[in-house]
User: Fold NAC transcription factor 068 from Jatropha curcas.
Amino acid sequence: METGIGYRFHPTEDELINHYLKHKVLGYDDEVSDIPQVNVLDYEPWELPLTANADQVWYFFCERNYKYKNSQRAKRTTRCGFWKVTGKDQKIKDIAIKKRLVYHQGRPPGVRTSWVMHEYHPTFNFRIKRDFVVCKLKKRPDDEDEDEDVPQPSTTMASASGNNPTEEDSQLQAHVASFQGYNEMDYSLNSAMQWGSYYYTN
Assistant:
């Protein structure tokens, strides 16, 4: 996908799901050609067809990968590492589930890297024709302080538990921080490209 000067591809979640993902699972590839189809597990994050620029976010369609035939357990292993789900799934209306993942090099427990991804799974109230997810990928700058601009646990919560935040909590905070700095409404396709409404209702 090429972008020209003055154009930045940064759809809102509604656009990403209600337009792009919906058309993809229904088989209308020509309507969503702005987002390439890639098997994310065939690549390490740095090998994906993109220019590594920490100020950008990249999007891919990916067919769901399963560990075993007739199994719903997701496969998340690459040649050199694995994607680890962090935090709880987030329900987006009745149309998708968002999973947050961090890439780890090596085999479990591995070494956590700066590559982070949001993975959107469709939950539309109609029968989909193809099993796709849409992935939103970013590399956090190596010199970025993971705790910078991350809300810390409240005094009440800390005193109530008597414990410091767990490692998983810290990973989730760092993951959320990695996607800060983007106002999705500012970069919506409707405003950037002056398109009319193209949402399709069920």
Remarks:
- The longest helix spans residues 13-26.
